[in-house]
Amino acid sequence: MTQLILASASPARLETLRRAGVEPSVQVSDVDEDAILERLRAEGPLDPKRAVLELARAKCAAVADQIHDDSPASQPTQRVVVGCDSMLELDGEILGKPYEPEVAIERWKTMRGRSGVLHSGHWVRMLGEVLPGEGVPESGDVSSTIVHFANVTDQEIVDYVATGEPLHVAGAFTIDGFGGPFISGIEGDHHGVLGLSLPLLRLILGRLGVSWTSLWNR
Long-range contacts of range 112-116, CB-CB < 8 Å, 24 or more positions apart? Predict the structure, then answer.
């Protein structure tokens, strides 16, 4: 059996794994996301796919380094850390978490009746193994899913933001909660909209020689 450590505080990511038969341990990173994005912007126009992948890698590395220092010898020999990050791209602009109600309301007034692309970066690092000349086995990739937003009313937007749900999620929406009725459709992997693409994670783990079924809690 392989132990998966999720470097994310997202309830949606945790529940996605659990419904797929995986019971991860959760350890949240303390990565300064704004500092990473500022560095990327200094290098040129910010590419959303690169941004979410770099953030996912940073979160994964931060947690993996902590576990490397503190993990007891009794832990399973095969362990993997998974870091994730998501952002919505709309008209070439990257939209992260709005945090403030006023920002979320204006965001939804811009998004309604339109479509955006939800990019979710994934990064996986193996623990307890270092390959000669190659370092620690790790790999990552990005899931991109088109999201179609319903033409919601001003009052629906105000009511939705008042729930608090969209304030701390990428793109100011969820598909598995209060925001579900306001998403008229998607094109691509629906798990990616939840912030963790199970099919993509399976492929990344496969690159590292980890069988998906070895993660099942049984």
Answer: 112/149, 112/150, 112/151, 112/152, 112/157, 112/182, 113/149, 113/150, 113/151, 114/90, 114/148, 114/149, 115/146, 115/147, 115/148, 115/149, 116/88, 116/89, 116/90, 116/146, 116/147, 116/149, 116/171
d(CA 97, CA 1): 35
Max Cα distance, the chain (Å): 60
Lowest mean pLDDT among 1-15, 129-143, 149-163, 192-206: 129-143
Name the residues annotated as catalytic: 85
Residues 104-112, mean pLDDT to the nearest whole number: 97
Per-residue pLDDT tens for 151-199? Answer: 999 999 999 999 999 999 999 999 999 999 999 999 999 999 999 999 9
Q: Mind listing the domains of the chain with CATH numbers?
A: 3-215 (3.90.950.10)
Q: DSSP E strands: which ranges in the chain? A: 3-7, 25-26, 79-90, 93-95, 115-127, 138-149, 183-187
